[in-house]
Every structure is written in C-alpha cells, then in structure tokens.
Amino acid sequence: MHHLDRTGGRIAYDLHGAEDGPLVVCVPGMADVRATYRHLAPALAEAGHRVAVMDLRGHGDSDSTFADHSTLATAADTAALIEELGGPAVVVGNSLGATAAAWVAATRPELVSGTVLLGAFLRGDGLRGLPALLLRAMLLRPWGPALGAAYLRGLFKGRTSEGHAEHIAAIRAQLGPADRYRAVTATIANSFRPVPARLDEVAAPALVVMGADDPDWPDPVAEADWIADRLGARKLIVPECGHYPAAQRPDLVVPAVLEFAASVAPARGAEEAAGA
Questions:
Q1: Cis peptide leading into 88, omega within 30 of 0?
Q2: Which of 8, 172, 195, 233 meets the CB 3.0–4.6 Å disulfide criterion with 206?
Q3: pLDDT single digits (tens) 146-171
Q4: Most distant CA atoms of the chain, gap in Å
C-alpha cells in the first residue's frame, strides 16, 4: 500500500504492474473501497499497464482527517495521483468515481487519455429537498450504519463474484468507527452539480459501462444511452448486474476494459519521444 499526501490527510492506493507501463487510475464510488477493482487491476497489470487503485477520502485505508468530501475533491485527488505517477492515464471510475473522472477529463485534459465510466452519475444535482432530508434521517446513528449497509448490499443486484463476501465486509467495517462514518456520510451527501455543466469539454475517448439491473436508475439502459450519446462514447450493457460492474461481472467487464485501454493508451515510443 502507498500513500499520496494531500492537504488534510493522505490517500491510500495500491500499485500493480510494471513501472514503465501506461498508467491506469481506478477510483471507487461513495462508500465503496478499492477492493471493487480486485479483478480488473491484476488483469490490466498483466496486460502491461501500471495500475493505481485508490480509496476515497475517509474510506478504506485513506485518512479520515479531511474536511472536504465533495466530488471535486475526489477529482482533485485523482488528478494529483496521475501527476504523482506520471500521466496521462486512463481513468476508471465507478459511480461518484466516474463523475470525478469526467471532471478531470474536462478540466485537466492533458492528464487523461481515456475514461471508463461504470454506473456513472453525469447529470442532475444529486439528492435535494425531501429525498435528501430522508437520506440524512436514514443515516443518523444509531440505526444509520445498519441501514446504510443494507442499502449498499442492495446495489449489488444480480450476480456476484469471487471475493464478494470480503468486499461487503470491508464496506461494512468502515461504517463502524465514528470518524469514518462521518466521512462516508459526508461523501454520500455531496452534490454532483458542477460536473454536468462541463461534459461538453470532455474530449477523451470514453467507455460507458452500465449494469442492466442497476437500481440507481429507473431505466439504466436509457441512462447509459444518454451518457454514450453525450460523450460520443462506446457502450457496454452488462446483464445480471447492478451498480458495480467491475466487481460483479469481471467475465464481461475485464475484457472490454482491456480492449479499450489498449486502444487509447499512448505507445511507449511516442511517450519517450515527447519527453525527449
């Protein structure tokens, strides 16, 4: 495990693969941990990529001392990690991680060679009004951690894969300590508002991956169609899958991401020529 120093704390991340491989940075969603990429990261590394898999602020092994848990803070951490390791990178994001990936692609295009957007939130403001108040009430202690864990388990609708029980246990464990629970609930309560306004600035190639049974949308296929049309992106609809395609259906998602990453990663010769 490695750490990226940021104002307010440290971001934990794992590194896989050869040091000179094209960089891929993987970003989990809210309340999730980097184990969500347990199938994808080794496969990318085996294919020759250098893969960094990070935890969000206050999640997993990252520090719980941060004050800002917004989407833009996640995007800033992602950009800082790419700069630390030497970009550009293919940025793989799930849920809020995908929102952050799109923001980095729009605002720091020199850092992004492509994005893989898994169950992405790319329009709307997040929960507001009565739904937001109900969510806050649901997450209050003492009942909040148990209700939150049950809600998150429900997002894995469809198939699960090897390591699922351990993945769920890791998510549940971070809902126990008060400091980490505050970080998780602050992340859940954040708004996606700034990101949709910048989508037209996303020029990097994108792969949109959506679980056909993702319970976060009334019609997940229609949501994926909208994102793909807006970004001119490739699209993969994953059957028997909820909100976590890379964790739930690696049999379909891993080959698609490998193909996409190979198609957009800069050739090593071109990188060396640019740095000469």
A1: yes
A2: 233
A3: 887 888 899 999 999 999 999 999 99
A4: 59
d(CA 106, CA 211): 25
Say which residue the tokens 């990663």 belong to.
Answer: 265
Cα 219 to Cα 132: distance, rounded to the nearest angstrom = 21
* Distant-in-sequence, close-in-space partners of 176: CB < 8 Å, separation ≥ 6: 145
Please name the residue that has the structure tokens 């700034």: 194
What's the alpha-carbon Rg for the chain, to the nearest Å? 17
Tokens standing for residue 29: 């969603």
Domains of the chain with CATH codes: 2-275 (3.40.50.1820)
CA distance between the termini of the chain: 32
Q: Give dist(CA 72, CA 126) in Å, integer.
A: 14
Please provide the size of the chain in residues.
276
- Provide the 10 A C-beta neighbour count for residue 210: 27
Say yes or no to pLDDT of 271 above 80: no
CA distance 276 to 196: 37
Query: Comparing 101 with 188, which gets the higher pLDDT?
Result: 101
CA 122 to chain centre: 13
- Predicted TM-score of the model (pTM): 0.92
